[in-house]
Amino acid sequence: MDISDxxxxxxxxxxxxxxxxxxDSSRLMVLDPKQHTVEHRHFFQLGDFLKKGDVxxxxxxxxxxxxxxxxxxxxGGKVEVFLLRQIAKDQWETLVKPGKKVRIGSIIHFGGELSxxxxxxxxxxxxxxxxxxxxxxxxxxxxxxxxxxPPYIHEKLxxxxxxxxxxxxxxxSAAAPTAGLHFTKTLMEELRxxxxxxxxxxxHVGLGTFRPVHVDTIEDHVMHREFYSxxxxxxxxxxxxxxxxxxxxxxxxxxxxxx
Length: 259
Fold this sequence. Notes:
Strand order of the largest sheet: 5-6-7-10-9-8
């Protein structure tokens, strides 16, 4: 497949800068592959297209405030460190901007309570960093880090929880699994009331999800690794549904990729 096969025009003014409120008031496009029809509905009507016995699979990853803004120790130059994946205690795989000016051995300060040292390069142009701090790293990150909104969102995020799904619970993602952002507690209760079952997997969204494709032929693109986990209870839930001829519906691309 050639990358040009996927070209399409997306005018910037068509990209929503603030989320719909409530979450499930977002629009929902319904495609019928048999009738070749397209319907425009709202997400709170999702239950109209599901039936008793269906199994919905959600990605319960939780986004961390992965973007840190700091300064180089010797020059004071501004540096952005974007956390991708923890690989050891206090060691993270990251993206660093501007990368060319930050060499191995460089120290970056993020205020007075957190610093990091660049200790290695990665095979995708990133850096391995080792954090230096006193206290609990997660608490410091919550104070100093910002949520990693996509680059096409220019509005400041006021409420951090708005960039989390309501069922998020396992910290580690560098971006939100966006399909799940439209679910509300009311909608999930309504679906449960219809006899729809829920299962959960975990995939921590990383560089592989949002890294640009720089090759012309899709098959030549090298995907970055991402952590995922499928609990045994989810496996059993899916197997039982399959054995009984019931549908298994993945919520979003991260869930379907995990399955």
